[in-house]
Amino acid sequence: MKTIRILIAALSLTAAVSAAAADDIGDAIDAARKSYQAGDLGHAKESLDLASQLIGQKNAESFAALLPAALPGWTAEKAQAQAVGAAMFCGASAASRRYSNAKGDSVEVSITGDSAMLMQFATLLNNPALAGAMGKLIKVGNLRAIQNHEGDVIIVVANKFVVNVSGSADAASKLAYAQAVDTAKLSKM
């Protein structure tokens, strides 16, 4: 019974934290609307920039949840999530995770999205002639991907996300991690 109470309390706290983050976004949007109506365009833009950054952070956290667990024989570091403001990368959100094995090989899987510049890059990668010039065209699940001469894998998902798998490990290990990313869930985001 005590375990159930602790579980319920933990779930309630998680829901409260999620609601608070959603409230921060809504509060920033409301502040922007009020500032705009009052003619304070500078504050309106600042509030919208804040809302955009908070949404980017939320997306990055969602990406982190889609990074695969460590495959057999590998260990995984904690996933890292970040949202980079519009000034640097057109508002990109990203999550990455590093994996290593006992031989000292490493693999890093990253998911990047929320960037107009990235969507233009994705369009280029979806052109078979251009993509073929960047490496060997392969399939990862039902998606076309590129594997370069170092075995790194790049997958474009739904023309708005890029999954990149790189590191010092062999090509087969990188491909196994690319296949472990839940691209079906990512495509629905």
Short description:
This protein is α+β, with helices and mostly antiparallel strands and 189 residues long. Mean pLDDT is 81; it is low at 1-21.
Question: How would you characterize the overall build of this protein?
Answer:
Strands 1, 2, 3, 4, 5, 6, 7 and 8 form an 8-stranded antiparallel β-sheet that branches. This protein starts with a helix and ends with a helix. It is built from 7 helices and 8 strands. By secondary structure, it is α+β, with helices and mostly antiparallel strands.
- The total of helices stands at 7
Estimate the helix proportion, in percent: 40-55%
The outline comes out as elongated
Alpha carbon gyration radius: 20 Å
Beta-strand level of the residues, as a percent range? Answer: 15-25%
Major beta-sheet overview? 8 strands, antiparallel
Give the strand tally.
8
Low-confidence stretches: 1-21
Give the SSE string: HHEEHEEHHEEEEHH
Q: Which structural class best describes the helix and strand composition? A: alpha+beta
Ends distance: 37 Å
Mean pLDDT value: 81
